[in-house]
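Slide 14.
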Amino acid sequence: MSGEKTPVPSGQTAFGDRYVLNAKAPLLEFNSHGGLAFEVKDKEKPNVALYGLVHHPTVPIRNEFYKSLKSRPIANAVNPVDRGLMNVDVKGRKQRLVTIFKRPTGGALLSPDGTLNPELNPNKLRHNVVLSLLKALAELHKRGLVHRYIAPTNMYFAEPGSDEVVLGESYSFPAGYKLPTGLEPLELAFADQSCRGEGDVNADFYQLGASLLCLYFGQDLLKNRSRDSLMMARVNQGSYWALAGGQEMPGALGSLTKGLMADALDERWSAEDILDWFEGVGKPKRTTMTTWTMNKPTTFMGVAYVERRLLADALGRNPLDAAKFLKSIDFPAWTQISLRDEIMTERLEKVINVKPEEGYGGPRSDDHFMVSRVCSFLHPTGPVYYKGMALNISGFPGLIAEYFSRDDRETMTSASEIFDAKILNSLTEIVAERNPNFAVQSVSIKKALDHGPSKQLGRGMERVLYELNPIMPCVSSRFESVWIGSLTQLMRALDRLSSVGGGKNILLDRHVAAFCAAHGTDLEREFNNLAASQSNPAKFNTLTADFFGLLQKRLKLEALPHLCEKLVDGLAPSIRELKNKKRREQVQTAVEKLKKSGDIAKLISDIKLTQTQALDAREFSQATNVVRKLEREKNKLMRKILPTDIMARKRGYQAARMIAFFGLVTISFFTFFGGR
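Slide 15: predicted structure.
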C-alpha cells in the first residue's frame, strides 16, 4: 500500500457488524446519484427487507432530510433506518458511509430501463398511486421539507400484489441533482442539471404531475428528447402537451395532471386544489404564457425568438456570439420595440450597461458580464448565465462539490466569478423586483466564497467546499479509501496513515487544512502562524505538532502513537537547532520518553518547544551580543595605534592638556613657594 494512502481500519465497525452488506447483490432500482444500492441483512431483525446505499464521498447529502425521516418515519415513503461507517468491498476494499433503508419489495413503477410494472393500471394509478404519493408529500411539506426528486423510476409498490405505493429517497444527493429536464418545472429547468437549486413545494407538485403522465402512458416520455428541443416545445406548447407529445390524458386524472403541470406558478395546482379534485369539485386551470412573450421576434444565430426566456437561454448558452449580437444593436431602442411592457429606467439601463461596438471589434473583458446582465433582465426569475453556464444560486454548494469531483478548477473559478461584488450587486438590482429571494440566497454563499481567492492554508476553494457542504467528508487523495466526516475521524485516520510511513507535511495538503479550519473552532490564529512559517520547515513542523496536540486535547482522544512518533520525527531539526546544549539534551530526553506514548497534547505541554525555541533564541542572541561587544573591545586593545587615528589624536590631545595642566601647576608652585 502506498505510504500516502490511508489504510482502511482492520476491524469492522459495530454498525458494520450488525448490518451485513452483500456487495455481490446490487439493487439497481435503488441506485441514486449519491450512491450504489446493495442488499443488506440486519442480524437483529433478519426478516426485515432492507437495502444499503453506499454513498459517494464527493456528492453532498441532505442531512436535514435524514434526521427528520429517521426520527419520525413517513408513511408511503422509503425511510432511513440507520447509517454509519462500514468497510465494504465495492471496487476495492473501502470504508464508506452507508445508509440503511427499509426496502419496498413490489418493484419500481417504471424500471430504470423504462419497463412499466405489470401490476400498474389506470385504475390503480388514480385510486392508489396518487393517494399514496400525496400522503407522503403532505407530510414532507408539513415538516418544511421538499422532496425534489419525484420521478416514475423513484416510486415503488410496497410489496408484491400490494396497492400501497412508496416514494423513493432523495436525501443522498442535492435537491434536483441531475433530474431529467422534463421533470423539472420551467422555473428551474433552464439551469444546468448539477445546479437546479433547492426549489419549493410547487416543484414537487409539477414533478408529481409529470411522473403521473409517464406512468399513464407506460413509458419514459423523456427518452431521446434533446434538451433544447424539449425546452422550446414546453415554452411554446406548455409542459403537459410537450411531454405528452400531443397525446390526451382523459378524465379526472388528466385534469389533475394538467393542473399539476401548469407552467405559470399562480395556475399550478396546490394541495388545496388537489383536495378539491379528490372531492370532485376541482376546476381545471388553463395555462397562459403571455407574460414572457415579446412584441417583436428577435433573430439570433438564425433562430427567431418571440419568448424572453428562450432568448435569454440562447444568449447565455452562446456568450461570445451573444456579445457580438448585443454590441451590434441599439439596446435601449431594441427594448422599447421588443419589450413594450418593460419599463427601462435610466438607472436600469446604466446597470445593464450594453455598450455598442466602437473601434476595434474584438471581445472586451466585460463581455461575459454584459451577457449575464442582459439574460437576467430578460429572465429575472431564471438562472444566472455566465460563460455558457446556467446556475441557480441555491444549487451552488452541490455544484462546487461536482467541480472538485472531476478536478475542474478552471470552470469552478469561472463559476465563482459570479459572486464578484460588482457583478452580484448588478444582478441583484436587475432582478430585485421579480426575484426578491436572489439577494437572500446569495448572502451565505458569498460569505463562504470570500475564502476562495486566498492561497493561505485553511482557505481557498477547498475551504469554500467544506463551508458550503458541512456534512461532506474530506476528499483529499490521501483519504480516498476511507471516510473522514469529523476531526475525530481525521485524527484517527492520520494515526493509521502514519503507521505506514505517510502523513509527512500533512497540513500542506490543502484539503486537510481546509477541512480542519471549517470543522474546528477558533483555529484561525493557528493557521495564520502555519501559513507564515511555510518557508521554514523546522518551525512549520513544530507548529504542526502544536496544532495536533491542541486538537487531541480538545477532542479528548485516545493515544495516537503512530501520529505522535511521526510528529516527533518532524521535531528533530528544531531540537538540533537549540543552541543551549543542556537544554537540547533535556528536550531530547523528554521527547524520547513521550515519543511512543501517543499523547501529543502531553508531549507539547511538557516540552513547550515553541516557548523553548523562543527562550533559546533570546538567550543565544543576548550571548552573541555580549561576545560581539567583547570582540570589539578586544580588537580595540589589540590593534596598532597610528598618529593619524582620530581616536588616538583625541586621546593624545587629552593627555597633552593634562600634562600641560600639571606642569603649569608644578611650575607655579615652585615659583611662588620655592624660595621660602
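Speaker note: The two ends are 113 Å apart (CA to CA).
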